[in-house]
Write a structure and sequence with these properties.
The protein has about 120 residues and is an all-alpha fold. Helix content is about 75%, strand content about 0%.
């Protein structure tokens, strides 16, 4: 197995996590579990970014490191549009709010748009 084969396997594992999170998001949204939906939506994005980083041979253990790598390696290089970086940042902040702020609410239409 080559080094790139190993990177591809890890990237596929991360993408499976991302796809699973998106499937659960659809259920959470349908059931109006908006805070849980936003949190899971962030994890879908986190897993997808982790897949891209793994494919490039990078691995980070902290959410803030993944966020910084997305900006540095993909947004600033022009590989992905700046808007996608902003969406990731928003999901990161919303997930934090959902985790640590009581009585958090989110707009269902906005979640549908993000999903």
């Amino acid at each position: 197995m080559t080094d790139q084969d190993y990177k591809n396997i890890i990237a596929c594992d991360w993408m499976e996590k991302s796809e699973s999170a998106l499937k659960s998001d659809e259920i959470l949204l349908r059931e109006n579990m908006l805070v849980a939906c936003v949190k899971k939506l962030y994890y879908a994005a986190f897993s997808a970014v982790s897949a891209a980083l793994a494919n490039a041979g990078r691995k980070y253990g902290r959410h803030t490191a993944v966020r910084a790598a997305l900006d540095r390696d993909f947004v600033k290089s022009g590989f992905i549009p700046d808007d996608y970086g902003k969406i990731y940042d928003r999901l990161f902040d919303d997930r934090q709010e959902g985790d640590y702020t009581p009585r958090t609410t989110f707009d269902k239409k906005e979640i549908e748009r993000l999903l």
